[in-house]
Design a protein that fits this description.
Length: 208
């Protein structure tokens, strides 16, 4: 059973303020996304071998922004509802959930640098498996505090399951190695305005 660990928990002021609860994960998610260079990330995403049902890269930005906002609202809702309870067990579950929320947010933010910047699919997949487990347990804990907060995490939990499939599938199909998945273009490619080609694409021929 998880306990409340203040040193591993976001400040109470974050949870009690709806704007801060929502904007913090959204802002951190956007910051990590831009720090990993969106253009480079999309090139890597298009270059690697992908499992079936992969979404286009344009889907991820709006989806994650919505999920970050939902998880932030869930945190605010669970905290304000739970800490106002006269039941000591509910208060304890609320604070335990706050620790779990902070841990899952950290695991979430680490995934993209692991996968796209460091190109470490094994570590990234291990991270997202742990993230999914922590979020599942968080959903269970907060379901005992406030059902609305728990339901707000359900879309996030579902997306994490899909993202785990993608991460593991990409790792398997690429022999767990994402390094050097882009190859430099030839001089003829540069003349045609193409700066890069991808390892899972055949070179383009002139006249086609």
């Amino acid at each position: 059973m998880t306990t409340h660990v203040p040193s591993l928990t976001l400040p109470e002021a974050i949870f009690t303020n709806p704007a801060a609860s929502i904007l913090l994960p959204v802002g951190l998610g956007l910051s990590v996304g831009y720090s990993t260079s969106p253009k480079s990330t999309q090139k890597t995403y298009c270059a690697i071998e992908q499992p079936p049902f992969r979404p286009p890269p344009q889907v991820f930005g709006p989806t994650w922004t919505s999920l970050y906002a939902l998880m932030g609202y869930a945190a605010y809702r669970a905290w304000t509802t739970g800490t106002a309870s006269l039941n000591p067990n509910t208060v304890l579950l609320t604070k335990q959930g706050a620790t779990l929320f902070t841990i899952q947010l950290g695991l979430n933010l680490v995934w993209m640098p692991l996968f796209f910047s460091l190109k470490r699919p094994i570590e990234a997949t291990a991270d997202i498996v742990a993230l999914t487990g922590v979020t599942g347990y968080l959903t269970y804990v907060w379901s005992q505090v406030d059902s609305v907060a728990a339901w707000c995490l359900v879309p996030y939990l579902g997306w994490l399951g899909f993202a785990t499939y993608l991460s593991a599938g990409v790792g398997y199909l690429n022999d767990w190695n994402l390094v050097d998945k882009e190859r430099e273009s030839t001089s003829s490619d540069r003349g045609s305005g193409l700066s890069k080609d991808y390892v899972n694409q055949a070179p383009k021929q002139k006249g086609r």
